[in-house]
Amino acid sequence: MSKNRGRIVSGLPSDINSGRPHPARFYDYWLGGRDNYLPDRQLGDEIAAHIPGIRAMARANRAFLGRAVRYAMTELGITQFLDIGTGLPTARNVHEVAQDVDPAARIVYVDNDPIVLAHARALMSSTPQGRTAFTFADLRKPESILNDPILADTLDLDRPVAIMLIAVLMYFRDADDPQNIIARLLSAVPSGSCLAVTYPTADVDPKGATLAADACERAGITMALRSRAEVETLFAGTELVVPGVVHLEDWHPELAEAPLFEPEPYSGPAWAYAGVGRKL
Prior knowledge:
Layout: E1 2-3, H1 23-30, H2 38-50, H3 54-74, E2 80-84, H4 94-101, E3 106-111, H5 114-118, E4 125-126, E5 131-136, H6 142-146, H7 149-154, E6 162-166, H8 178-187, E7 194-200, H9 206-218, H10 228-233, E8 238-240, E9 246-247, E10 272-279
């Protein structure tokens, strides 16, 4: 693959606090990665004590991302992706899945985490026909994403775009008005675009999920769990594609690739929902 570098603005924060747990790093820990520190592993293990299948669920979340990308391309004809809250690079990033389907696919990754910025070059590989880019911006300020020259340079906003919000919206409380943030993003893309979301829930085991969320809150990490009905409200302005908002593993399993990770000893439903909505 050739290299396409996105513009990374100078003067951005580059400090990485290894003394406090961080969501991107304990998620990396659950996926078997190495870009994590002791506090991340300690919190990851504390959450796992309340959600025994969390590692399998993290893997299921990653597998859904691949299925959603393939669905957007093969069923909706979308070849452009805006992946917000990218997290640390791991197996089968969006551009790898998309450009396997169509080498001309274009992807913009967005994150506001310095550690993700430090690893951004791993997301910059692309086929010669396609493009990838990374922008350091905050989902809480959607205009910072939409007005960044990187976006206009990489994606054609007159053509449909898949907006990927994978395991990121749970860091937003109701007071943060995530529905308005999503509405602003959707307003910038044309009809035929889509929105993909995954979201953790307490519906499967209210006690265990609440204890896990409390552990995150004590560590200074917002964890706003939502029910299926509440997750469905995040798709306002779109039409949910079949099968709607369902547990991670139940969303178009026929689109699965070969397993990305070693299997985990958990066979119950994921404590998280997934869905894709199409903008009409």
